[in-house]
Design goal:
This protein is mainly beta and about 130 residues long. The protein is built from one helix and eleven strands; from the N terminus they run E-E-E-E-E-H-E-E-E-E-E-E.
């Protein structure tokens, strides 16, 4: 893995469930100050969690930092060898190739992944559904 993080806009949110660092999160329901992992490939990501929260942290109202822009490290859903492709967030908040169907965009893959849970650099460009590039 080469490169690192260049953080842009980050903000603190309450963890609405256990959250693992370096995975995509979304708003929890219509509660704008609470985040959870993306739960399906079609979920619109809000950003990437920069720290983890346990179930106990949730009970205690723990605030976690979420990055919305910049280059951040994200856990990979598996092998992704082609840099420059559009990535989305899977059901566990991991980066996955956007694929042929329209999925909400997380960003652009900058470093390859050789296996599940590898850390990869992603240029965040969160947006509406887009086909693979």
């Amino acid at each position: 893995m080469s490169g690192g993080m260049t953080l842009g806009i980050c903000k603190g949110y309450k963890a609405g469930a256990a959250v693992t660092a370096y995975r995509a999160v979304k708003f929890s329901s219509n509660v704008g100050d609470t985040v959870i992992h993306t739960a399906a490939l079609g979920d619109q990501p809000l950003g990437v969690a920069l720290e983890s929260a346990t179930a106990g942290d949730v009970t205690n109202g723990r605030i976690i930092n979420v990055c919305h822009t910049g280059i951040v490290m994200v856990r990979a859903s598996g092998v992704m060898a082609t840099i420059g492709i559009s990535v989305s967030a899977d059901a566990a908040g991991r980066a996955v190739a956007s694929g042929a169907t329209l999925n909400p965009r997380l960003g652009v893959l900058l470093t390859p992944a050789a296996a599940l849970d590898d850390l990869v650099a992603v240029l965040l460009s969160i947006g509406a559904a887009s086909a693979a590039s």
